Amino acid sequence: MKYSEIKAIKDYCESLHSQPDYREILENIIDSTDDFEVDNVRFIKSDSIDKIQQEELKDDLYLLGCFNSGFLSDILGIDYDVLDTMREAEAFEAIGKLILSLDKLKDLQAEYSSIDGYGHHFNSYDHSEDEFEISNVSYYVFDNQ
After folding, report:
1. Furthest-apart CA pair in the chain: how many Å?
2. CA dihedral 44, 47, 50, 55 (to 10 degrees)
3. Domain count, the chain
4. Domain coverage including residue 122
């Protein structure tokens, strides 16, 4: 890793509200960790982020079922009114199970990230995202402070 890259990480960390320990971030980058968090700042390799987001969505059926009816209708090919009725009945987990049973998680995640970016999912604080490249590896960065 070049000195200029180390300095860039240090400067970036100092610009963040939480000012995470740049040395700990460097250790994770050197260890080629795909997904790590330091002081509420999450780093995810760009070539792993889609799979990580899919896993997180799959593990929360309620959240998966909370997407709006129009969005889900387009992804699932199910009538809007049917999904809206399920949402009105607060059958969010059932909608989540339906998404998984129809094998539409990958399609949903791809459309979700293309419309809203990744910050909406990974950054509950302000939904922002940054991109950072170190040693030819791109990371998405989410400051949750």
Report:
1. 58
2. -70
3. 1
4. 3-143
